[in-house]
Amino acid sequence: xxxxxxxxxxxxxVEEYMSRIxxxxxxxxxxxxxxxENPTYKEVCTGTTGYAETxxxxxxxxxxxxxxxxxxxxxxxxxxxxxRQGPDIGNQYRTGIxxxxxxxxxxxxxxxxxxxAKYDKSIVTEIIPLKSFYDAEEYHQDYLKKNPGGYCHIDLxx
Length: 158
Known about the structure:
Low-confidence stretches: none
Strand order of the largest sheet: 7-6-1-3-2-8
Strand content: 25-35%
Mean pLDDT: 96
Largest sheet: 6 strands, mixed
EC number: 1.8.4.11
Number of domains: 1
Active site: 10
Protein name: Peptide methionine sulfoxide reductase MsrA
CATH superfamily: Peptide methionine sulphoxide reductase MsrA
Pfam families: PMSR
Organism: Tissierella carlieri
Distance between the termini: 24 Å
């Protein structure tokens, strides 16, 4: 099993989208790469903690490759917009790929280069090692499964 952490705006939609992919065996939402230990949602929403709303993705690489997983991730974000996705604005809604295995960087960069060819603007998606990750509060976990009519800026049919 492999792990990657993906930030794509509001984490509810990213988690739901990723959880539907064959080969993804676990997802959790939380806060990545900020400065405060064990932040709350309310604190992250202030924009002062440095955290990004992020989805932890555990996947079986014998079923889906990191490259395919990232290609699907790139489809649901606009990587040219800084600190915003859909109507959600703030540095906590930035896009990012946070890796835990340094060997993944070559595949991440390959998909990044492919994305650059698709846009006239610069890609601002953050690509750095995971420094920290704290699970979000329980009511955020599997939010769109618990609340099927809940808010989501992502087209889940992609």
